[in-house]
Amino acid sequence: MPSMIDIFFLLFGTAAVVSGVVIAFNVRGVVTRRVARVHKKLELIHQANGRLEPVFVPFTGTAGYLRFLGVVMIPFGLIMIVASVALMSLHSGTR
User: Fold this and answer.
1) Where are the domains of the chain?
2) pLDDT for residue 76 is more than 90
3) Where would you find the membrane-spanning parts of this chain (predicted)?
4) Given a cut of 60, is residue 70 above it in pLDDT?
C-alpha cells in the first residue's frame, strides 16, 4: 500500500510534467495568452499613471522565459515520478 508521500510525489510529478509540456510547447496558446495579459495589464497601469512612453515588459513576462520555465518543469516532474516509484518499491519490499 503506497503511503501519502508516494501518492503526493506521483500526482505532483505528473502534474509538473503535464503542465511543463503544455507551457513549453505552447499548447492551445497558453503562453501567448499569458504574455498578452501581462502586456495589457502593464499598459493599463501605464495609462492610469499618465505615462506616455512605451510599455517596458520585464524579462519574466516574456514568452521565452515562460517556455523556459516549462522546459525546466519537465525533468523535475520526472524526477518526482521516479522518486515516487522508488519509494513505492522500497515500501513493497519491506512487507
Assistant:
1) 4-93
2) yes
3) 65-90
4) yes
Categorize the per-residue pLDDT at 2 as very low, low, confident or very high, splitting at 50, 70 and 90: confident
Higher pLDDT, 80 or 54: 80
> Cα separations (Å) of 66 from 9, 30, 34, 56, 93?
23, 10, 9, 17, 41
The cell numbers describing 24, all together, are: 513549453
- pLDDT at position 79, please? 97
Cell 515588459, located at residue:
57
The 10 Å CB-count burial string (b at 16+, else e) for 59-93 is eebeeeebbeebeebbeebeebbeebeebbeeeee
Residues with Cβ within 8 Å of 92's Cβ and at least 6 positions away in sequence, in order, are none
Q: Confirm if 35 and 95 have CB atoms less than 8 A apart.
A: no
